[in-house]
Amino acid sequence: MQTVLCYIMAIITSFTGMLGSLTGIRIGKKEIDLEKFELVWSDEFDGDTINEENWKGVYGNTEKAVMRKGGYVHKELAEVKDGNLHIYTKYLEEGTGGGPAGYYTYMMYTRDLFEQRYGYFEVRCILPKGAGQWAAFWMNSPMMENVDGSAADGAEIDIFESPNYHRRLFRDYISSNVHYDGYGKDIVSGKMGIYKADNPYEEYNTYGLEWNEEEYIFYINGVQTKRTRFGISEAPQYLILSVEVGGANGVPDPESWAGDMSKNDSLPSDFIVDYVRAYQYK
What we know:
The protein is built from one helix and 22 strands. By secondary structure, it is mainly beta.
């Protein structure tokens, strides 16, 4: 859903940010005030296994491979080690979990384990390198696919997605957006914005969302990037961490918004997550 306008706006955003750095003045930039929140849920990934009290596979335990877009998901593509969650993307010639040869990765969520309405939600992570794939930290609701002309019963809130590795000029930019009314012809989508992170494929950045009755406010490294009143959910939402391969029916699409997977020279790639935290308003 990218448009030329989005990338023009990214250039403007980058320029104003650079100007602010040179002058010492923050231009339209506001920092998150964590003092108005209290931490109510977190996963610091300090153990040696995924905490099943916090997370489960989007497709169950995924003992068997499940087709997802241009690849497959299976739980062996994720592990916790050295204080981080790692979600890998690999090409497996022999497949795994009964699946065929193809690209494999993983996605996990907190549905039925942790869901919250309003607050501040944040991830600290290093993005996976390579074209044809993207990592994401997002929220959803069981009723998001109910088509009723409203986001009140739930929305897909993309706190960040990272489809721009193949765009050299915009490689360090992530996208944020909101959608509601399902994934068919009735889907309603906001205006996607793209925003620059700091060397995100090599260094940790934080990506956050403040959500209240009036608006969504998006942040990178605690600094506001986007605020919108579009599609405000009034329902508890769960958290999702995922890596996707562009395409359909297990076959990568060279024209996907993340680029051509066949040109990905960074496999196996690694989405490294230091923590996920959720806060409530005090």
